[in-house]
Design brief:
Length: about 260
């Protein structure tokens, strides 16, 4: 196999890495006595897109929920910007969360608000000093970033699946996060729209120097977005490498994703 087979929990502890944005050390997590994560260790560096692949139930979504403190590991440590998430008080954790954007499978827009109002909501909530004019400028820029400048006054019900995903992304990015967490960003989209969303993820990564973790089972999305791929099997990291390395693997389980 040309991809890297992973030594579970083996993290290099030599010198502090200032480019390290997220570090998960030997994470274990169980629900109702079912162990979902079994000693997972992951590092994400500044400006890197890390794709996490795995079949349903492999613990992919639990992994990213641990990063924002929506779920806490039973064992192991999660560091974000050098902070141990489990040791932070509520106020400090919220400050960290503001720097993290989370795009769920659904765009999670408020149905009763226009696109403009959906984008204004997090902006006004986190920065009450902004004038209405300043809010408008930021919203226009956010819509421009996702190519939907003319959608500001539309209601969510008027948007296609791809447009909803773009607006959800714009709303997430409006607070200038340093980390983006994508949970199946292309689910439910046609092939062409999924490709556009994947390319948009890469464009925004390069433009804003965002570090991203992308949970997906869409191999086309993985090929476009991944700087590096981690593959989970039965709650453990089974393989790791670049797309091309893993695609050339002789391992039967890894090959099943690329065939």
């Amino acid at each position: 196999m040309k991809g890297k087979m992973y030594d579970y929990g083996n993290v290099n502890e030599s010198q502090p890495d200032e480019s390290l944005i997220v570090e998960m050390k030997n994470i274990h997590k169980s629900f109702d006595y079912v162990e979902v994560l079994k000693g997972v260790s992951i590092r994400v560096h500044k400006g890197e897109n890390l794709v996490v692949l795995g079949k349903s139930g492999s613990g992919k979504s639990v992994l990213i929920k641990c990063i924002v403190g929506l779920v806490y590991p039973d064992e192991g440590e999660v560091y974000v910007f050098g902070n141990n998430i489990s040791e932070l008080n509520y106020r400090t954790l919220n400050k960290i969360r503001v720097k993290i954007g989370f795009l769920f499978q659904s765009a999670a827009l408020y149905d009763s608000m226009t696109v403009r109002e959906n984008l204004a909501f997090p902006l006004k909530h986190h920065n009450k000093k902004l004038s209405n004019n300043e809010v408008g400028i930021v919203i226009d820029e956010a819509l421009d970033n996702v190519g939907l400048q003319d959608a500001a006054e539309k209601m969510p019900s008027e948007l296609s699946g791809g447009m909803s995903k773009r607006i959800g992304l714009a709303r997430t990015l409006i607070l200038n996060p340093e980390i983006m967490l994508y949970d199946e960003p292309t689910t439910g989209l046609d092939t062409g729209t999924a490709k556009e969303i994947s390319e948009l993820i890469v464009h925004l990564q390069k433009k804003n120097k965002i570090s991203s973790i992308i949970i997906t089972h869409d191999m086309a999305c993985a090929k476009i977005t991944a700087d590096r791929i981690v593959m989970l099997k039965d709650g453990m990291i089974y393989a790791e490498g670049k797309y091309e390395e893993l695609a050339a693997s002789e391992d039967e389980w890894v090959k099943s994703f690329f065939s």
